[in-house]
Write a structure and sequence with these properties.
Largest sheet: 6 strands, parallel
Oligomer: single chain
Distance between the termini: 38 Å
Radius of gyration: 20 Å
Number of helices: 15
Strand order of the largest sheet: 1-8-5-4-2-3
Number of strands: 8
Bound molecules: 5,6-dihydroxy-NADP, zinc ion
Strand content: 5-15%
């Protein structure tokens, strides 16, 4: 195992009834005046907005609101939030929603303590030095943003979509009430489940040496998603299934699986330009790209890992030769995606084929190759887009 430092200080408060009970007192530890950030109407329909605001009021926390954060959140919305924090002198942020709301809140938190335009942070032109404390109330299990230091923001004028990570963006406290996710649509539940799976796979398909404990945790988490996502789709108000998926979302991307070994993280950079330019749902973009990417990069050298994935996660016959088992694992993954009602074809998401070169350029940024696992060139990325089309 390689050397590593692991520190994840987000306090998780998990279970039903705890937002009403403890949100206000947890927020008060940081400030008595906050910006409450949320998206559209979902939080008002499922009761989470009422729980949050009553708890803030009960603990005499003054709050201003920023509503309407978009899926694939826009930099202009971040700027609005920064302006409110500065105008009103707010000293902490409460994010109520899924990954888009939480990510937007993270960059608002950074922008509020700086005179730099927040797009400079997102596009890596300026480092984030500090951020206001962030408390999150999660309503959609997917990104892991509730327990990590990353944020992904879209510049709606250019279509650019980038991720940025900084310790100061790590939420101080995150509330996870699985009941809030009962109202998530089947479609968003499926996309969220695939996003969780993808986060685990991105860290699993790496160097096979020295990552035994990480690999077994990853396989357990993947099995959890594969087992419980269909139950959430079948019975949206199944508390136990929603709980398992919600906690899996946080564990999948809180640095636990990546510590101590190298990992490629190659599909996410390829997907982000698609959701940036075409506003598709991130998890669905990943679901289209992942099997095509695996078919493209599978070879005799890395088949050992693919076979482990096939046999340990999808229980494919382990006596099969490496290549055969590996391909069966990819087919099983495709079947799982289709069973959740998602397509494998970007074409069906309204993605324009002519954009693939531009998307590949954005995925690569300044680099010639992407990742360490397959070291994808611009042509490779375009080929993968075409195969997923
Ligand atoms: O706006 P509202 O009305 O809240 O509706 C949202 C939105 O339309 C709805 N929703 C959320 N909670 C709900 C609900 N509907 C009913 N009931 C509820 N309880 O779901 C829709 C999608 O929400 P969004 O927040 O966009 O989804 P998700 O959590 O999947 O976040 C996606 C964003 O996160 C980024 C993605 O790229 C994308 O921009 N990511 C962030 C990461 C991170 N910070 O670590 C990592 C990920 O890989 C990802 O890139
Ligand atoms: Zn993701």
């Amino acid at each position: 195992m390689e050397k590593f430092i692991f520190q994840n200080s987000t306090k998780i408060i998990f279970g039903k009834g705890l937002v009403e009970k403890s949100l206000g007192s947890e927020v008060r530890k940081f400030s008595d005046s906050v910006l409450l950030v949320y998206g559209g109407r979902s939080c008002k329909l499922n009761g989470s907005y009422k729980d949050v605001t009553s708890s803030l009021i009960e603990h005499s926390v003054h709050f201003e609101e920023l509503q309407g954060v978009e899926a694939n959140p826009h930099i202009s919305t971040v700027r609005k939030g920064v302006a409110i924090c500065k105008d009103k002198g707010l000293k902490a942020i409460v994010a109520l929603g899924g990954g888009s709301v939480i990510d937007c809140a993270k960059i608002i938190a950074a922008g509020a303590l700086s005179n730099t335009d927040p797009w400079e942070f997102v596009s890596h032109k300026e480092p984030i030095e500090s951020a206001l404390p962030l408390i999150t109330v999660l309503t959609l299990a997917a990104t892991g943003s509730e327990m990590n230091s990353g944020a992904v923001i879209t510049n709606e004028e250019t279509g650019e979509k980038y991720g940025v990570g900084r310790d100061s963006l790590l939420p101080k406290v995150s509330f996870e009430n699985p009941e809030y996710t009962f109202s998530v649509s089947k479609y968003q539940t499926a996309c969220g489940a695939f996003d969780i799976l993808s986060h685990i796979m991105e860290q699993y398909f790496g160097d096979v040496k020295g990552s035994y404990v990480q690999d077994r945790m990853a396989e357990g988490l993947m099995e959890t998603v594969i087992h419980f996502a269909p139950i959430c789709l079948e019975k949206p108000d199944n508390y136990e299934a929603r709980s398992q998926i919600m906690w899996a979302s946080s564990l999948a991307l809180n640095d636990l699986l990546s510590a101590g070994h190298s990992y490629p993280w190659e599909v996410h950079p390829i997907e982000h330009p698609l959701s940036g330019f075409f506003n598709i749902t991130h998890g669905h973009g990943l679901a289209c790209l992942t099997p095509s990417y695996y078919r493209y990069v599978l070879n005799a050298k890395n088949a050992k890992r693919f076979k482990e994935f096939a046999t340990n996660v999808f229980h494919i016959d382990s006596s099969l030769p490496e290549m055969e088992a590996s391909l069966k694992g990819i087919v099983a993954l495709e079947d799982f995606i289709k069973s959740m009602g998602l397509t494998l074809h970007l074409k069906e998401l309204g993605v324009d084929k002519d954009s693939f070169r531009k998307c590949a350029e954005q995925a690569l940024g300044e680099n010639k190759y992407l990742g360490e696992f397959a070291r994808l060139s611009e042509d490779d990325i375009v080929n993968i887009y075409n195969k997923a089309y």
